[in-house]
Amino acid sequence: MDASAEDCGGGTADPVVAPAPPAHDVAGPVGVRKEEDALVVQEAGGKSPSLLPPPRQPPSSPAAAAAAPAKQRKSGTGVVLGADEPQMASNKRAHLLHMMALPFIPIAALIVQNCCAMAGALRLHFLARDMEHQVGITVEGTKLLSALQAERGEMAMSLITGTQRSSLHATFRNTELAIQRALMEFKSTFLMKNVEIEHHLANISAKRSAILEPTMGDKRAHSYHEVWELEDYGVIISMVMEHLAGTIRDMSSATSTWKLLIAYKNILRCIENLSIAALYGMHYFGGAGLLAPAPFASFVQRDSLGDEYLLSATQFSPRLQTELHNFKVAPNSPFANITLRRKEIYSNKPRVPDAALAESYFTETSQYLGEIQRYQDLLRVLISEQMDVDLKAAEQQQAVAVALLVLVLGISPVIIFLVRNATQTIQAFGESLYTRTIELKAEKRKSDRLLFQMLPPAVVKQLKQQRQVIAENFESVTIYFSDIVGFTELSAISSPMEVVNMLNGLYWLFDGRIRKYDVYKVETIGDAYMVVSGLPHRNGDRHAGEIADMSLDLVSGVKRYIIPHRPGEYLRIRVGINTGPCVAGVVGSTMPRYCLFGDTINTASRMESTGQAMQIHISQETKQYLDKIGGYIVERRGSMEVKGKGNMETYWLMGKEFVGDVNENGERYSPADDKLNNFKENVPEFLKIITEGSIDIDVE
């Protein structure tokens, strides 16, 4: 087709658009190609871009050739995945173990926690049982104390009055029974294995025999000294008291009933101190009638301690406080008389001994101590109830711990099984995702390669970053236009597929040759071929020389190109070149195109349309740049009328001192000729499918 300036477009009104070339139309300047490859490598994660599969490299040895397929695995689309199967299986097993260990750690921690909780519950259970046993021992010890204290009071009253009381025999029997029960409870303790206690018990037996004798001599004088010989009771009571106090102290430090236990201990001490104080009171009323300073000080001390212990016990147990208040305000309470007698003793005025008054004081004091002992029994009941609550709580906690442990042990295998299945599913999905990712990257490299063929790499990068590409002004570029001479007539006598086949072979030749030059292929429309140098990357004043060298190389290559479907006939082209300023930018959003604007493009198109076959027609501006570079053979064509430009001085580019390589026969030779010779073997698949046959290309 004979292209005209109007057909090629350009100028300031008609942009020249760069459509998408075929997959094999790979062209561009060397610098642009390097940046394009770098961008594709960056997009592909550092791997070499390739539109076609990489060439097969021969293995270095037969053993390497046999081992190579075992180290590669292909995906469903044919993408080779470099994965070592044994290593991948080992990694999968390690990952599976790690994933199974993750839930096992909290499960193990939960099992340990439940075991500890169960151990704690068992400890509380055994502690509650032991506390229950200790409370029983304490009760028997308290009964022994009460029996000894009662016998001591009866013995003191007999000594003071000098008479045998009818209640002594019953008191002795109660004491013996209490001692026997205590021996059974305390047989494992030091209390009943103490030699000193055995000695004091023997003294108590002798004391009983002396009191039970029918004649006792001068009772009054004798009683003053005999009262203080009751210290055997005091020693035994003190030792039992200390043993019970230690037992209560141990229990109170390990149970929630510590307040009640402390109150119980204080009640024991209160009873002991008040009973001793009562001995001094009975001696005051029925014995000497006056207390010596030492016995009086002991009375004051014991009586005060008894009140303090009782007050402390009521503070630890509000129930005791209520009971004590009710006792004091009761109509028949002996508390008022006891208070009156205590005031008399505190006055310690000399008086005549009165056995009846001493008996009355003893009876009222015994009632008061009996009331306090009732508080002691009440505390024992409260302690037993609280111990039952603690025991039930310990049993419930133990049952819950056992149930949780059984539940965890039952659920753990299920969780491990589910985690194993989930991990295997995730691994399968991850492997599939990895394969798809590799395939996606391969396809992305192909699409990026195609995109880089449509637009300059710098422009593609800006578009990918979703930035607006601003049009850029270039002060000086060189434009190349060429078309096929007689293309319209040739198309008329050829089938469409023959035309496509012919153009494909020609552009294959062109694209292979322009790779060697710093140029950018703008478009191919029909038989028109447009190339520019100096944009999108500026190259100083070299653009005219790059286009000139390329033009000479293309014309030289066309001379050897035979029309495939017309053997013996060669194609001829017209070439036009112009140099000048232009503006380049991307227009459109749906299908963005890299367009050139300016009069330089129109003038280059006019140079081509007014040229001659197999000649390179250049403008005055291009000649000036070539002269500056030097080494080019230029011939003046003369002044001629150019449509839209008027008279212009134009020239023919005849050649250069050396273009391309020289083969062994001394002929000019370009590596792109190999692509032309092998075009038969590299015919695009779509042409083979459409023509359903081979395409013959004759090359001479």
In short:
With 700 residues, this protein is of the alpha+beta class. It has helices at residues 5-8, 30-43, 62-67, 85-161, 168-185, 195-212, 219-226, 231-252, 258-286, 293-316, 318-329, 335-347, 355-454, 457-464, 487-492, 496-514, 543-558, 599-609, 620-629, 672-677, 685-691, and strands at 11-16, 73-74, 80-81, 472-484, 520-525, 528-533, 573-587, 593-598, 616-619, 632-642, 646-656, 661-662, 668-669.
List the helices and strands and how they pair.
Elements: H1 5-8, E1 11-16, H2 30-43, H3 62-67, E2 73-74, E3 80-81, H4 85-161, H5 168-185, H6 195-212, H7 219-226, H8 231-252, H9 258-286, H10 293-316, H11 318-329, H12 335-347, H13 355-454, H14 457-464, E4 472-484, H15 487-492, H16 496-514, E5 520-525, E6 528-533, H17 543-558, E7 573-587, E8 593-598, H18 599-609, E9 616-619, H19 620-629, E10 632-642, E11 646-656, E12 661-662, E13 668-669, H20 672-677, H21 685-691
Parallel strand pairs: 7-9
Antiparallel strand pairs: 1-8, 2-3, 4-6, 4-7, 5-6, 7-8, 9-11, 10-11, 12-13
Helix pairs in contact: 2-13, 4-5, 4-7, 4-8, 4-9, 4-13, 6-8, 8-9, 9-10, 9-13, 10-11, 11-13, 12-13, 16-17
